[in-house]
Amino acid sequence: MTDRLEDAPPSWRDWIDGARPRTLPAAVVPVLVGTACAAGRTDVVAWRALAAGVVALALQVGTNYANDYSDGVRGTDSGERRVGPVRLVGSGRRPPGAVKRAALAAFGVAAAAGLALVAAVGVELLVVGAAALAAGWFYTGGPHPYGYLGLGEVFVFAFFGVVATAGSAYVQEEALSGLALGASVPVGLLATALLVVNNLRDIPGDTASGKRTLAVRMGDRRTRALYVALVVGALAAVPLVAVLGDRPWAAVALAAAPVAARPVAAVRSGAAGPDLIPVLGATGRLQLALGGLFAAGLWLSA
After folding, report:
1. Start-end of H helices in 89-177
2. Segments of the chain with pLDDT less than 50
3. For the range 97-102, what are the long-range contacts, defined as Cβ-Cβ under 8 Å and sequence gap of 24 or more?
4. Dihedral of the CA atoms 130, 134, 137, 143 (nearest 10)?
5. Which of 71, 149, 273, 297 has an alpha carbon within 20 to 30 A of 86's alpha carbon?
6. pLDDT per position as a tens digit, 286-300
7. CATH number of the domain within which 178 lies
8. What domain range includes position 71?
9. Half-sphere exposure of 260 toward its Cβ, with a 13 Å CA cutoff?
10. Cα 133 to chain center, whole Å?
11. Helices and strands in the chain: count of H runs, count of E runs
12. Cβ distance 80 to 102 under 8 Å?
């Protein structure tokens, strides 16, 4: 299937594939959950929630394009090594300059929406926004990309968990809340699980290219255990947030637990290479299901 995609003529669908839709739940869910945390504590302003969503989605897409560009020009995503979805630069389907411009355009959209929030909330958001943009670019960009040092999971948890969730609540309340910080934990754990299964799939190619991700450093067996621990940890954190945050209906998110069964079973059974691509999609669906129910429960309990 990968070969057929690489041999096909370039099309507008390349840009959709390059944005990696399976990873986008990591951007949507924290905004939903963070906004729900603010409900009942302040009057939720719809346009601020929408702007936060644009920031999160644009940052995710920009990071994906930047990753494609940087890995492509380094040669770590060559066609011979690539197991997952086709990369635009590595496959030769799009020139590096075009993909770099797409990344910068997405980051520009994120910055524009972020500046609207800065004007409404405060200049402190400039620091957070600048850090998020830098994290997106330097994941695989720059002379010392942190994704090559095994730190990708730390930054994903921080930015697509804590910062995105608590930040979405902050733009509503204009203050940090313990509830939003607590709710960011299951969100961040599942966002991290998305990266872990992606890097699990890529262990052979990343090892050959010298990309020392956390999965490469830990090895196959321990990376599989980490994925399971992240999913189980996210589910276990939900009732704790519901009880300690006095939002009992948030526990309804546990109804998403059956969605975790198939990807966890696949990882535990030793699925590898292309067989892990559906696991990435299933993990995204788990995050959407749990995140949607979690947000609804938080809102209903407000």
Report:
1. 96-121, 124-138, 152-157, 164-173
2. 1-7
3. 99/18, 99/65, 99/68, 99/69, 99/72, 100/65, 100/66, 100/69, 102/15, 102/18, 102/65
4. 150
5. 149
6. 999 999 999 999 999
7. 1.10.600
8. 2-301
9. 21
10. 14
11. 14, 0
12. no
> What gap in Å lies between CA 53 and CA 32, rounded to an integer?
8
Nearest residue to 26 (alpha-carbon basis) of 284, 279, 208:
284
What digits encode the pLDDT tens for the residues 243-277? 999 999 999 999 999 999 999 999 999 999 889 99
Number of domains the chain contains:
1
User: Phi, psi at residue 42, to the nearest 5°?
Assistant: -160, 170
Spatial contact of 223 and 209, defined as CB atoms under 8 Å apart: no
Decide if 148 contacts 71 (C-beta within 8 A). Answer: no
Instruction: Give me 37's structure tokens.
Output: 């945390």
Instruction: Measure CA 33 to chain center.
Output: 14
Neighbouring CB atoms inside 10 A of 131's CB total 14
Q: Identify the residue whose tokens are 């002379």.
A: 143
Decide if 199 contacts 134 (C-beta within 8 A): no
- Look at the alpha carbons of 262, 157, 234, 286 in this order and tell me if their dihedral is positive or negative: negative
**Rounded Cα gap, residues 70 and 148, in angstroms:** 11
Distances 292 to 187, 252, 285 between C-alpha atoms, Å: 11, 10, 10
pLDDT of residue 6: 45
Backbone angles phi, psi at 150, to 5 degrees: 80, 20
Where do we find the tokens 């959709």? Answer: 16
Residue bearing tokens 């995050």: 287
Write down the pTM of the prediction: 0.90
Residue 39: phi, psi to the nearest 5? -60, 135
How far apart are alpha carbons 192 and 200 in whole angstroms?
Answer: 12
Q: Quick one: tokens of 233?
A: 């940890």
* CA-to-CA separations, 287 to 44, 129, 174, 176, in angstroms, rounded: 23, 24, 26, 24
